[in-house]
């Protein structure tokens, strides 16, 4: 009898090459651990979705909004998004052709990379970075070009280095501002320089702005409005972080009509559309009361200051004060071992779950990402434990 090859041999090389994310690895280790764990690895608000948003989904389902929607998304949602984007960018946005509603910002990025990168093309990605654009680029058979930013500068985005990396093979450059994991903003002049270089080479800027409205100073202007080359900017946004809606899976991309049209084609053959009641919830989030969002932001600001102040008081560790998002990127290089080893020790001996810096691409070695999407009391317990690990390991007691 003919014997079949092992199942594993039928996995495509493209997929087999993708390694599990280190954050996922920490989740799995934490799931196996018992004890009173403090979760500081979490990448989502710990707040509930505002009640009026939840209600809008129920109402939509009850009135029969339970069928497929247009591939590009419910027109009312695109109109609300277009109106907001027009105000924010200062130029008119056409809801019919320049916007697509996606399954979170993650799908918007995936579609954008697949739409613009041919096999072998390069996607320039400054690091440390949220790792998904790296694996998405590989899934498109394109080549991620990781550009580690200098730790000495607090990982401030160095536009000159990004511009130098843009060449004839570049299909896209990822600009994430504020950054996950550093919470740094990219200055407008840097975005403009990068967009100008990208435009010269016929490459797109993938402006990941999912944390743009979760900033602690003035809300930064969208990338598309700080350059004359906005026809080369694909802007990615999401309801996940701004409205505490991670599980609803609603994001969007705004860009030139011809590119958005291609995205709709891919979206049609992969997910068709976003969950219909969730799109109605998103309309309520955009057009309803914004107080719950302001309250959440104020809580994040308090926690940010608390976390950074506490970290400053622990000898031999340090973290810059993030300008946006809800992460502190902490220099723990004084401790022994790689950041993955430090994160594992912190989990196994001190019951604190964090994400190692190397989960965010080249350049994150020696760092841990702490999320402050946890309540003040748990943050205090987590920081006490981190302090005692540092004191014990460095013999400071
Ligand atoms: C920088 C960044 N971009 C995009 C996303 C995608 O989020 P979502 O797909 O929930 O919108 C995340 C999620 O953690 C993120 O950190």
From TrEMBL:
Entry's Gene Ontology BP terms: amino acid metabolic process
Domain of life of the organism encoding this protein: Archaea
GO molecular function: pyridoxal phosphate binding; transaminase activity
EC id: 2.6.1.-
Listed PROSITE patterns: AA_TRANSFER_CLASS_1
Record key words, sorted: Aminotransferase, Pyridoxal phosphate, Transferase
Cofactor(s) required for function per UniProt: pyridoxal 5'-phosphate
EC class name: transferase
Similarity remark: Belongs to the class-I pyridoxal-phosphate-dependent aminotransferase family.
Protein name: Aminotransferase
Organism: Natrialba swarupiae
Taxonomic path: Archaea, Methanobacteriati, Methanobacteriota, Stenosarchaea group, Halobacteria
């Amino acid at each position: 009898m003919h014997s079949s090859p092992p199942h594993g041999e039928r996995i495509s090389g493209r997929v087999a090459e993708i390694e599990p994310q280190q954050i996922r690895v920490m989740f799995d280790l934490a799931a196996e651990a018992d004890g009173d764990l403090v979760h500081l690895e979490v990448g989502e608000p710990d707040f509930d979705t505002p009640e009026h948003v939840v209600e809008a989904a129920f109402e939509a389902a009850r009135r029969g909004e339970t069928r497929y929607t247009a591939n590009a998304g419910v027109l009312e949602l695109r109109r609300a998004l277009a109106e907001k984007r027009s105000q924010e960018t200062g130029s008119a946005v056409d809801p019919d052709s320049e916007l697509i509603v996606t399954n979170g910002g993650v799908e918007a990025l995936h579609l954008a990379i697949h739409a613009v990168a041919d096999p072998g093309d390069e996607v320039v990605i400054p690091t440390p970075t949220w790792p998904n654009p790296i694996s998405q680029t590989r899934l498109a058979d394109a080549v991620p070009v990781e550009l580690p930013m200098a730790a000495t500068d607090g990982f401030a985005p160095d536009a000159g280095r990004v511009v130098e990396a843009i060449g004839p093979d570049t299909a896209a450059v990822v600009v994430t501002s504020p950054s996950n994991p550093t919470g740094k903003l990219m200055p407008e002049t840097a975005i403009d320089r990068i967009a100008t270089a990208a435009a010269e080479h016929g490459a797109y800027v993938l402006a990941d702005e999912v944390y743009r409205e979760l900033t602690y100073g003035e809300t930064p202007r969208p990338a598309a409005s700080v350059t004359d080359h906005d026809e080369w900017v694909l802007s990615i946004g999401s309801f996940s972080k701004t409205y505490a809606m991670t599980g609803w899976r609603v994001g969007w991309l705004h860009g030139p009509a011809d590119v958005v049209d291609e995205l709709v084609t891919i979206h049609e053959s992969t997910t068709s559309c976003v969950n219909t009641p969730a799109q109605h919830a998103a309309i309520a989030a955009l057009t309803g009361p914004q107080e719950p969002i302001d309250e959440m932001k104020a809580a994040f600001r308090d926690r940010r200051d608390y976390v950074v102040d506490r970290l400053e008081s622990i000898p031999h560790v340090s973290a810059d004060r993030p300008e946006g998002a809800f992460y502190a990127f902490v220099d723990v290089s004084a401790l022994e071992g790689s950041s993955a080893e430090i994160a594992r020790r912190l989990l196994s001996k001190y019951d604190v779950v964090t994400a190692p810096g190397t989960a965010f691409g080249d350049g994150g070695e020696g760092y841990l990402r702490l999320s402050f999407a946890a309540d003040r009391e748990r943050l205090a317990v987590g920081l006490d434990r981190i302090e005692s690990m540092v004191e014990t390991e460095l013999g400071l007691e």
